[in-house]
Specification:
With 215 residues, the chain is α/β, with parallel strands linked by helices. It has one domain (11-212): Alpha-Beta Complex (Maf protein), CATH 3.90.950.10. Helix content is 30%, strand content 21%. It has five helices and seven strands; from the N terminus they run βαβαβαββββαα. It has helices spanning 22-32, 57-72, 110-125, 191-197, 199-212, and strands at 14-17, 38-41, 76-85, 132-142, 151-161, 177-179, 184-185. The chain has a seven-stranded mixed β-sheet with strand order 2-1-3-4-5-6-7. α1 (22-32) packs parallel to α5 and α4 (191-197) crosses α5. It is globular, with a radius of gyration of 17 Å.
């Protein structure tokens, strides 16, 4: 089933995003709007987040896309992404968003959860000199919830993890993710600049290229 660019968004051109993360929504909107697609966050359709029980990014992304497509009866996009630190064996990995559990056991404010996650990672890295890390993203597009041929694209973004946050433009681990080639953190990049080099930007461009190939 080929996906063609649309000049005007219609209900058929809507794609449900299986995420409630406002940062991710902005990035998907910026990349997909130019080819005529409206990204609808699943929360606006009353769809709760899917469970993410799997140990790999691709399995979690598939589960989230299938869940959103089933509940919305629309095409769905999902990504699973996180930061992987070499000296920690790839941790936090798929647990990146939940690396430091909410001590109260309730739904955490996103900024507070980000702060706990970063504090835990800083502490885990304290004994280590090797600070190399990379962001990884896999995006899954499902035309419908029983789609036997989901479209899958991935991207990685190399850098280092630093103890000192810098920048206001990012979210999650971005203020601590230092890019040696830029001399800046991910949170110090303008959105357009970040989209051109980030793991999610790379994965999205590969996904769009597959769309244009008529997958």
């Amino acid at each position: 089933m080929a996906i063609e660019p649309a000049s005007n968004a219609t209900p058929e051109r809507r794609i449900v995003l299986a995420s409630s993360n406002p940062g991710k929504l902005r990035e998907f909107e910026q990349m997909l709007a130019p080819i005529g697609y409206t990204v609808v966050p699943q929360s606006t359709l009353g769809i709760a987040d899917a469970e993410e029980p799997h140990g790999t990014f691709v399995e979690n992304a598939l589960a989230k896309a299938r869940h959103a497509a089933r509940r919305s009866r629309l095409p769905a996009l999902a990504d699973d992404s996180g930061i992987c630190v070499r000296t920690l064996g790839g941790a936090p990995g798929v647990q990146s968003a939940r690396y430091a559990a909410d001590p109260a056991g309730g739904a955490a404010d996103r900024a507070a959860q980000d702060a706990r996650n970063n504090a835990k990672l800083i502490e885990a890295l304290r004994p280590h000199l090797d600070r190399r890390a990379h962001y990884y993203c896999v995006i899954v597009f499902m035309r419908h919830y029983e789609d036997p041929e989901p479209v899958i694209a991935e991207g990685a973004w190399n850098g280092e993890f630093t103890d000192t946050p810098r920048g206001e433009n990012g979210f999650g681990y971005d203020p601590y993710f230092l890019l040696p080639d830029f001399g800046r953190t991910a949170a110090e990049l303008a959105p357009e600049e970040k989209n051109s080099v980030s793991h999610r930007g790379k994965a999205l461009r590969r996904l769009i290229a597959k769309f244009k190939e008529g997958v």
